[in-house]
Amino acid sequence: MTSEYNILIADDHSVVRQGVSLILKYSLPNIIINQTDTLNGVLEKMVVTTFDLIILDINLPGGNNVLMIEKIRGIDPNVKILMFSAFEEDLYAMRYLNSGANGYLNKLGNEEEIVEAVRKVLTTGKYISDSLKDKLINDLLNNVSQTNPLERLSNRELEISRLLVNGYGNLEIANHLNIQMSTVSTYKGRIFEKLEVKNVVSLADLFKLYENN
């Protein structure tokens, strides 16, 4: 990497932004780093600055779903997007990659993985971890499709499922996601139907079985 690159780190936690910024500046001195903590901040900065790469928190305020990618691409179709999340790759990575992201990086990765992910996206346009690559190859060789029942859920259904499993009630979920309680109830019904469970206890058991597989 010899060119100079403009990178935007979008995460609502200052400690995360500062930490990633320090790691990248140390290992990739030919970069210029900007920061923001909301999706609106991303879109506003893109209007005045052309970025080579956006490191995008999967839970960024104002976004929280794959539609973030569509909004960003609406301003700059060529910008590279590296999703940044603590959520499991098995459940989330392909959703965002299929929606147009260039890579998916787990926040629990070490410094070398962060640098490698950024370097690869900037130079080759793509990044997936070795563990995800192995899973995809294994699934392909064994003709495996949808082995994890949680993969039947949409992004919003998966998000609400997590909140249910973590003890949130319908009202708390509605307030947390800024949606109507009736909408939560509708999603809850869909989730139970898709996963063939009858209550939150059974849903939690399913998550224990599959979310780390």
In short:
It is built from ten helices and five strands. The protein is α/β, with parallel strands linked by helices and 213 residues long. The longest helix is centred in the last third of the chain and has 15 residues, at 181-195.
Largest sheet: 5 strands, parallel
Structural class: alpha/beta
Structural shape = globular
- What integer is the average pLDDT? 88
CATH homology superfamily name of the largest domain? Response regulator
Uncertain stretches of 5 or more adjacent residues: none
Any idea how many domains? 2
Instruction: Please give the radius of gyration in angstroms.
Output: 18 Å
Domain Response regulatory: 6-122
Keywords: DNA-binding, Phosphoprotein, Transcription, Transcription regulation
Domain HTH luxR-type: 146-211
Protein name: Response regulator transcription factor
